[in-house]
Amino acid sequence: MSEPHAIAGRLTETGHELTQRVYFEDTDFSGRIYHARYLHFMERGRSDYLRLLGVHHHELARDGHAFAVRHMAIDFLKAASVDDVLTIRTAPKAITGARIILRQQVLCDGEMLIAAEVTVALVGPGGRPARLPQAIRDALARAAKTGGWPALCGLPQP
Amino acid sequence: MSEPHAIAGRLTETGHELTQRVYFEDTDFSGRIYHARYLHFMERGRSDYLRLLGVHHHELARDGHAFAVRHMAIDFLKAASVDDVLTIRTAPKAITGARIILRQQVLCDGEMLIAAEVTVALVGPGGRPARLPQAIRDALARAAKTGGWPALCGLPQP
Amino acid sequence: MSEPHAIAGRLTETGHELTQRVYFEDTDFSGRIYHARYLHFMERGRSDYLRLLGVHHHELARDGHAFAVRHMAIDFLKAASVDDVLTIRTAPKAITGARIILRQQVLCDGEMLIAAEVTVALVGPGGRPARLPQAIRDALARAAKTGGWPALCGLPQP
Amino acid sequence: MSEPHAIAGRLTETGHELTQRVYFEDTDFSGRIYHARYLHFMERGRSDYLRLLGVHHHELARDGHAFAVRHMAIDFLKAASVDDVLTIRTAPKAITGARIILRQQVLCDGEMLIAAEVTVALVGPGGRPARLPQAIRDALARAAKTGGWPALCGLPQP
Q1: What architecture is the D10-146 domain classified under in CATH?
Q2: Cα(C95)–Cα(C100) distance, integer angstroms
């Protein structure tokens, strides 16, 4: 439970992998994770993926830029509990001038809890769409080509 | 901003409508709402809809039952800001023995911010699917038949 | 549970009173409210109190101003559960040029759950302390003089 | 930013130290951390401290036990921003049969952001106070005796 790991996770062949703990704050009275908290875990995964590619939110913010989520499709397959250690996987699926489509999974002990497809866009001052820096598009496009993941959405649900 | 309203919202011909304020806690450093917070607002809408139909979480919990989200598809169309007053609309689309498919919208000043389709299931002790009480299924089925809403997902995005 | 109320609460002789529901999101696996959520409820109370005195966060933000919490002392006396309807009371205790000291209580069914003393400051661009507008200081000072509340902190705990 | 660290932090001579990142979710429209989020970081610190002492929330929960916060005094000295890496320090100050008083600090780049004193209690079924296991009381009492920390509350505020 306490083995060393990198705080920003690690780049993999297909994208990025982050380890995070489920704390008290993530649960609700049903005894399991509150469903919206998985979006927090996935956002941490996306942020740390971009971080390891050299993109930092506080630097973007200086120019009035921030990433915004445009679309999400999420299968909630199984619920985690307090103390669980989760793996958040993020992999690019497609990149256009202004948008990134990512596949994300949340796993616990090798079992898939969440499978999602997330579209994010870079937004500039006043909420206007902004073009992704070329270096990021190239890095994501390279990872997207590996295509190592099975389709995540439309999975049969338990 | 302070006109009287019912704390649990109100039943409408097609479902339910709830008024909620955007507070400090709902925003992030981009200056707008943190995307996952919309799921909180939608959950409040679903809870208050069921409440007005006579279903209370704390009563379900006594028998070890709770609602769990199984699938969500969400279009994030426009972002709200602090102090905004939101309208959360919830309408049943389909009901099966164990699942409810709901359409949800979040609006501000007549503009649609969020359009979502949400599948929830009743879960019993040990996470096993539980059958919805007949009275709830009937009430939701009646509302679903009015079919007053246009399709919410797959909307063209700005 | 659904009687009409004003979304921004109401001014009272000693300060402000706001009604809020406990939702799924506010609870944790212990079955009760997650302790930090009470700070959200209290912040909503402070925001709506200022709102009814004519101070709006989004207007302050245009000039780079925002309120920041400087100190809190909180007694957690009793825990609320999902579906509970809470009353959040806010009353000014003292006002200086840059700081407001407020007493806050959270109640449910007439029982006190939380008793807190909160110091907030107005902060300008770059995090520098900013002077409170005179009109606000006057309004708060008038309410502070009524002094209708018993001391909130240092209460015997159950 | 990505050097290896133990996910549950590490025991120190005076208590425990945990490293955590500030993500999008932790901020608000002021551009800094939402004040209540520090309570989440402190709770993670307390949970991981107890974890390394052999106490696990999910095991306590099986017998209907959970920790509850009884009192908090918090100085908010300086605000963190997105992408910051925080150190959360936790040290026992006093232990009685049913309560633990802890000192907690949140630091960033060697600067203290938060200084707090937190009283927690173990609570059993129905919310009744429960006695702390002897092994935990001994471990905490040993750390409390080292007394390596300066007083945290009542610090002069900037």
Answers
A1: Roll (3.10)
A2: 5
